[in-house]
Structure formats: structure tokens, C-alpha cells
Amino acid sequence: MANILWHDRKRHFGLPLSFTKYSMSEDRFFVETGFLNLEQNEVRLYRILDLQLKRSFGQRIFGVGSILVTSSDKSLGTFEIKNVKNSANVKEMLSVQVEQQRKANRVSSREYMGGDVDFDDDNHDGEL
Fold it and tell me: How high is the pLDDT of residue 128?
């Protein structure tokens, strides 16, 4: 099992009243949804291209925020980490882990500028 660095649930009115769970390990981000039928998606952190923090007035009142994640992952693509506590800290932690994984896998952002590029790299050496 992966070493989990952070985890939280999607929150409503600041309370974890949801069946959507988020967690992050050193190299992957997980999104688990469902109650009876569970679905778990993951994205390798080096595939994350951009992060954006969004905090509406209501979210600020309840101490939560959302992070819009743009990735090159085929199944998740662009997704939102909705209504999590300490969202600014989570975004910063995620950003640091993304950069560490890019360096570890020798992946740089210039490799994503080509448009329709297949990012599956089985040996993770950064060469396309």
C-alpha cells in the first residue's frame, strides 16, 4: 500500500458528509467515489500540468476550498478536488509533490507542449 501523505473527504457546509474521498501518496493522487458501488481513480503526479485554487465566499465561510487540477491522464483529465479543508496548503503540498515527481521521472513541462502526444512511458525515463 502507498504511503499516504494527505487525505480528506469532499465536504458540505464544512462537514465531511460525502462519499467522495481524496488521498495523495508520494507519487499518485487518488479519487474514490461511491457508497455501494465504489470507483477509484488515480493520476500519477508527474502527469499533473496545472493547479488552480478556487474559494467562493461560501467556501471561505466554512473554511474549505476547491482545487482545479489539469492533467494529461486519460481517465481523469481535468478534475476538481472539491470542498477540502486547508485547500491552499493542500494545493501547495500537491504542487511540491508534482515537481518532485517530475524531477524523479525526468519529465519536464516542455514535453507537454506538443499537443496530441501519448504520455504512456512504461519505463518512466521521460523520453517520448
Answer: 44
